[in-house]
Amino acid sequence: MTSGHDTRVSLAALIAIRPGHQARLIFRTHRARRGDKRKGFTEQDYARFLDAAHQQLGGPVVLIWDGLNTHTSRAMRELIAARDWLTVFQLPAYAPELNPVEMGLPQCELRRFPLA
Asked: What's the pTM?
């Protein structure tokens, strides 16, 4: 998402659902300036995010992921394989209606505010 300035903000989010508990939204942001080589999250950024979520949630994580190229890269597959507490299911190529995080983003108020 961009604001018309030279800063781009990417958002990684997951919704944690556990029977008998309230759902939780866990997210991280990444800011990139015009000219940065990488505009969004890297595989290592996602791995750190998932490690933090795992620690925060205190148990195994089942992840349902969309087809973003970073999610499906060889490096990401290796990072996933190294985490025995992580199970990943892949959504079809373009299916935002199956992804509850994507369903909430169009209403996201962050899109309306310029970044400093």
From this structure: 0.71
Tens-place pLDDT, residues 15-65: 888 888 888 889 898 887 777 777 788 899 999 999 999 999 998 999 888
In the chain, what are the domain boundaries?
7-110
Strands (E), the chain: 7-16, 24-33, 61-65, 86-90
- Cβ-in-10-Å burial (0-12, 13-18, 19+) of 70 comes to middle
Task: Give the Cα separation of 28 and 30 in Å (integer).
Answer: 7
User: Which amino acid is residue 9, in one-letter code?
Assistant: V
